Amino acid sequence: MSASVIDSDILDLYAGTGNLGIEALSRGARFAVFVDKDRECSRIIMENLKHTKLETKGEVITGQALSVIKKLKDKNRKFDIIFLDPPYQSGVLEDTIAEITKSGILNEDGIIVAEHDSRHKLPEEINCLSIKDSRKYGDTAITFYRTGR
After folding, report:
1. pTM, to two decimals
2. Which residues, 6 or more positions from 108, have their beta carbon under 8 angstroms from its beta carbon?
3. Which 8-state DSSP code applies to residue 63?
């Protein structure tokens, strides 16, 4: 993660244990919203936030990512960085990114960081976003989307 994390608002979708959002908070992010559909994951995220003394800088939501995106839109929430780390074989990345662009929850200069199976090639463009960088680490790939400027 780069210095752009400092003072950023983070959305960690498909958060699992919350490691991406918690790492961002530890590096100076302002606030993080963690979303996972599994109640046990939500409980673990809360424990991890308490353990790192970051519980005042995080909000944990248990729910389906696409539904939560709509709720965040209705609350006029905006994020500078959105992490996506769904299960590799779930096939939800493209739909989730498209829903994010439609909802307007990503700030104008925001970035989406998508972790996925390195064999899965994501589209160069999804709505107003385009790939700005992509890196492979063995079986894992990380793709960075930004607005197409």
Report:
1. 0.94
2. 147
3. S
> Given the structure tokens 């006029």, which residue do they identify?
76
CA–CA gap between residue 33 and residue 78 (Å, rounded): 11
Encode pLDDT of 119-129 as tens digits.
988 999 999 99
Measure the CA–CA gap between 71 and 22, rounded to whole angstroms: 22
**Which of helix, strand or coil describes residue 16?**
coil
Report DSSP state, residue 78: -
Query: pLDDT tens digit string along 56-106?
Result: 999 999 999 999 999 999 999 999 999 999 988 888 999 999 999 999 999
Q: What is the largest CA-CA distance in the chain?
A: 40
| 96-127: b (≥16 Cβ within 10 Å) or e | bbebbbebebbeeebbbbbbbeeeeebeeebe
Instruction: Take residue 131 and report the two structure tokens written for it.
Output: 């790939």
